[in-house]
Amino acid sequence: MAPSVRLSPATRSLFDEPLAITVQGLGPRQQVTLRTSLQDETGELFQACARYQAGDNGELDLARCPALPGGSFSGLEPMGLLWALQPQKPFRRLVKRDVQTPFVLQLEVFEGHGEPPRRLLAQAQHERVFLRDGVRRVPVREGRIRATLFLPPGSGPFPGVIDLYGTGGGLPEYRACLLANYGFAVLALAFYSYEDLPKEMKEFHLEYFEEAVNYMLRHTQVKGPGIGLLGISKGGDLCISMASFLKGITATALINSSVANVGAVLCYKDVTIPPLGADAKRINVNKSGIADIVDVLNNPLEEPDCQSFIPLEKAECHFLFVVGQDDHNWKSEFFAVEGSKRLQAHGKEKPEIICYPGAGHYIEPPFFPMCAASMHLLVGKPVVWGGEPKAHCEAQVDAWRQIQAFFRKHLTGKPSGTSSKL
């Protein structure tokens, strides 16, 4: 029989759920190369390939057969063809711009291990979707708020979370909607460089974020009495500021966050927190022109930069710090440890800190390929984000589970338990 690709789920799956890949109808111990391709909405192509040898029965099951050396990865990696996807042009990061459409994954099986690939033996297409059936996407333009609310199927109310990204600006929705698939009401909140919001990161007013918190607390589909915050990078320190000054925050999960205010002045009523100082001379640029900025920021424990340390001891919530120990954007582990010390010194609960060796800065939902380097808006050149692809992928899978369990525990009082049917 002719070779064929069998996928499970067969035609479509959530982006953050595993995909089982099997090739049938090959010759006994036949050598083949598998290649995956995916185009983002701007037309950028991402690809991965791996070399395999079929079993004695002519079947190749990626959950049982290790990839041989010479491809994008080697060893037993059932999801390697997804997490190893790399841009064909340098410094591109895979993001989802329109969560209402799927990414279409192309899978091809080629004869042998040659470069370039030889005869095409079989191929298949698969949709990786972001919205589970029944999840509602609601654009929010209320007062100054510029956001999108994702509501799970059912009558609710649901535990509520506000989701913030970093210095890229705009309104990324993909993490918020993936989280909503698991029973959370999630508000993806823009805070600059979107519609009529400020174009640049110069000054942020917490009153804007307070509007968003109050919107969630009042919403009939949001289960009180408090809500959760989820932030990565600059979004993380904004979440810490929100938790420190605003009422109604029960749980705050931070991914590679600073505990000092970074990049812009922060104002709330009569309080002003200056940004942490930085020294561009500490940027280390390699021969390829890629910058390592891990040492650029000043130490917030030293004067005059102590003023930028966010007073997180004022917060009345539970904290979770997710840390990539190879983060090259800034010293995330140092920030998490210092945040923990500050909380405990003021008699507050010790935060949960989960450290992932080999994980870089952009810890995304599962199976987003690791971005080793891309353009940094504030630096004006490509920077290295850190991470080792396999370890980074494993960190993303575990962190996603830990974040959901953290919110479920503190926003619903129930232990974790997720369903992943479409």
UniProtKB/TrEMBL annotation:
GO terms for molecular function: fatty acyl-CoA hydrolase activity. SUPFAM superfamilies: alpha/beta-Hydrolases. GO terms for biological process: acyl-CoA metabolic process; fatty acid metabolic process. Residues 205-412 form the BAAT/Acyl-CoA thioester hydrolase C-terminal domain. It comes from the Eukaryota. Gene3D superfamilies: Acyl-CoA thioester hydrolase/BAAT N-terminal domain, alpha/beta hydrolase. Keywords: Fatty acid metabolism, Lipid metabolism. Residues 16-142 form the Acyl-CoA thioester hydrolase/bile acid-CoA amino acid N-acetyltransferase domain. The active site is at S233 (charge relay system), D327 (charge relay system), H361 (charge relay system). Belongs to the C/M/P thioester hydrolase family. This is ACOT1 thioesterase. It comes from Nyctibius grandis. The gene is Acot1_1.
